[in-house]
Task: structure prediction
Amino acid sequence: MALLLPFIFGFSTSFLGMIAPSMLNMTTVKISIERGKVDAVKFALGVSIIVLAQAYIAVFFTKFLNENPYFIQILQKIAVVVFILLSIYFYRNYKKETNNTSEFKQKCKDTFVTGLFLSVLNMFAIPFYYGITTLLDNFGWLELSQNNIFLFVIGSAIGTFMLLYSYSNFTKLIQVKSKKTSNKLNLILSILTGILALFNLIKII
Result:
């Protein structure tokens, strides 16, 4: 059981950490509505692959980041700019009166690549996993050995995928298929990314 703890920690923190509405899981809903479940799963796979790298970087460099907190501040500053740009992008899509579904299908031909791209832009990931592993290490619950790091990272990626997969199924339960609902998701994404930009700006100040 002790051998599985790093995996369980990675899976549970990743799953629970993304369960609230966010840019990634709301985009999964949008893709599931407009493109179907298969494309939503491709998007989730793309996101999860990047999470592998993000979690590994955060865990592997936990000691370095503890000794150099300014690196986290740099990520937060970059995040402010990225989230502001994304907020503007989603709001412009919301305001457009053209057929958003058709436009989305043209722009998002490969949802797997879209998942990779948006996951890279998720500047919260590395600080999040860094904070989790630091906490677990301080309490003595996660020894940062190579095997434990590997299991934690794999658990994090699978937890992310399962959460996004659950969101793609959620669209069937609520049965929202209309263009109107899809367009509202653009507004939701705009608000969420705007809040994230403001949150990071407040932390920097």
